[in-house]
Specification:
Radius of gyration: 18 Å
Order of helices and strands: EHEHEHEHHEHHHEHHEHEHEE
Shape: globular
Structural class: alpha/beta
Strand order of the largest sheet: 1-2-3-4-5-6-7-8
Number of helices: 12
Bound molecules: 2-phosphoglycolic acid
């Protein structure tokens, strides 16, 4: 497998104070230094981007933002410009996270403008897609994820598509009670995640061709932890993880990075999903 693993930490609004953010970042930077085969990033709160960015300078960990506006500057109260993110040293930006889509009503049109602005400015968009529990129950996994891909990636050129990371995050798996009132939150099984990643990769292949489809990392998010990461990452369709809760300490994040590093030494990923059977290839 030629794609590199990408392991991203999404701190959401969980580490609001700089002193705590810097402390966790320092531990992650130190403990990640030997994992050279994995692209690691952390997305802290806006107010801590500069300080966390300084900690990551000359480390193996990149800085990411959790969001951005699609204009360079202007009268947009409460928003942040891509220039501010670049000044802080961000390499990645999360776009279209379910919390943005569902709690803050961002739609594909807005996300598409953001994706294009990030690409124009040279920041890697991590485009998040994913269906709700109800949509999965109604067998709309393919339709919903394809719709989000086509809406969010409208008019994105083939050469730009190479610079994007896709994060498949089923809403029902994200450890967030506001997103999932009244449902039992659980991580996707290997088969569920593998199937959805295959849908996304097929969509990319139909639109951009097989070479690009093989290059674009598609990472999984939603209650990923050390206890399930090894299995999920063993799919030949899953190129890493976007991790919320388990990215809040080096202790819970580093084992996931370690699995990715180990699996990246494997030239053939152990699991591939052929039709309805999970086969062990090695
Ligand atoms: P979680 O969050 O790992 O806490 O479920 C993932 C995400 O929302 O990116």
């Amino acid at each position: 497998m030629s794609r590199r693993f990408v392991i991203g930490g999404n701190w959401k609004m969980q580490v609001p104070r700089q002193v705590n953010a810097v402390k966790i970042a320092q531990e992650i930077a130190i403990k990640s230094k030997d994992f050279l085969s994995v692209d690691i990033f952390i997305a802290p709160s806006f107010n801590t981007l500069n300080a966390v960015g300084k900690v990551f300078t000359d480390s193996n960990v990149a800085l990411a933002s959790q969001n951005m506006h699609y204009m360079d500057s202007g009268a947009f109260t409460g928003e942040i410009s891509v220039d501010s993110l670049q000044e802080a040293g961000c390499k990645y930006v999360l776009l279209g996270h379910s919390e943005r889509r569902r709690i803050f009503q961002e739609n594909d049109e807005i996300i598409n403008l953001k994706v294009k602005k990030a690409l124009e400015k040279g920041i890697i968009p991590v485009l998040c897609i994913g269906e709700t529990a109800k949509e999965r129950q109604d067998e709309k996994v393919k339709a919903v994820n394809e719709d989000q891909l086509s809406g969010s990636l409208k008019n994105v050129s083939t050469s730009d598509m190479r610079k994007i990371v896709i994060a498949y995050e089923p809403v029902w798996a994200i450890d967030n009670k506001f997103l999932n009132p009244g449902i039992q939150i659980r991580p996707a099984t290997l088969q569920e995640a593998h199937g959805a990643h295959q849908i996304a990769r097929n969509w990319i292949e139909n639109k951009y061709g097989s070479i690009i489809a093989q290059e674009v990392p598609i990472i999984y998010g939603g209650s990923m932890k050390a206890s399930n990461a090894q299995e999920l990452l063993s799919s030949d369709q899953i190129d890493g993880g976007l991790i919320g809760g388990a990215s809040l300490s080096a202790e819970t994040l580093i084992p996931i990075v370690q699995y990715a590093e180990l699996l990246s030494k494997d030239t053939t990923k152990p699991y591939s999903w052929e039709g309805n059977t999970l086969s062990f290839d090695k």
